[in-house]
Amino acid sequence: MHQKVPAGVCFPVSPEEGPQSFIEHKAEGQPIHLFSLVMFQQRCSLAQCPQNLTRVSEFFLMSFSDDPELQSLLFGLFLSMYLVTVLGNLLIILAVSSDSHLHSSMYFFLSNLSLADICFISITVPKMTVDIQTHSRVIAYGDCLTQMSFLILFGCMDDMLLTVMAYDRLVAICHPLYYPVIMNPCLCCLLVLASFLISLLDPQLHNLIVLQLTCFKDVKISNFFCDPSQLLHLACSDTFTNNIVMYFVSTISGGVPLSGIFSSYYKIVSSILRVPSIGGKYKAFSTCGSHLSVVCLFYGTAFGVYLGSTSLPCPRKDVAASLTYTVVTPLLNPFIYSLRNRDIKSALRLHSRTVSS
Fold first, then answer.
1. Angstrom distances, CA of residue 15 to CA of 21, 37, 101, 214, 222
2. What is the reported pTM?
């Protein structure tokens, strides 16, 4: 049994092929099987699925510049930023693990944050530098989902660790006498483990939403990595419900940790204001300076990415904000903590002397 189908209509080729297997018919009046037509109507209506729909087996990421003369410069810039980030965070991990004076809960959380930052930047920059060198911006559908999952995982891990570090500063300033008892090694390990398990849940929810998308209007992602919000914008089906769910999940995963940080610092500031001497206030608040700087940098750029992409989408501005969020923030974290922390600086000096001698 055959029926006629208009030109340019997309549909699954056969029952065996998955929902991402589409072909495009250019000749009007080409016969198709009734099963294919029914499956097509179920997957993608004519009003929602425009013509020129392509096979969803790969996506094309956005490049920073199409100028051939700038490719070598961009390659060297991003590669050097990646190497400096990895080296700086590894030095913090090495300093914390090798110096017995840094075996406390604050530096234990800092070393885990440095490890998360190394993983976070390693999700995007190596792929980006390879693309610049090979002049290719293609990423397979499965690789795109994998990159998105790990990016959300380690981004959420940063969120949770910053919240745990805020709680650590709260106990240290508001309950200094009970600090060694409350922040014992067992509790610290449990907090890091809980942060990791909670972070594992976030990418699974995003994957469930993205995997429900059965067709896409385009394969060009307006960013240098697979952003879940970009994939929703490319979907040809009605994604209103998916958008609501995704923004709700993002609000919970980002808003709840941020509210915990605000609550901790509200109590910290209230406690510091009761200190009589100005020197005591400065000494108490100086222990939070590095953490506050990282929190402002991380959340400021993160909100710039997601609020900017939802209100007034602008590909170039979104890429610049995403670059700050995924590359510049992990790059600056070791500098912020090493320059503002005397213990880290002294440990690094001691380690450099040991290596040189």
1. 10, 11, 65, 14, 32
2. 0.78
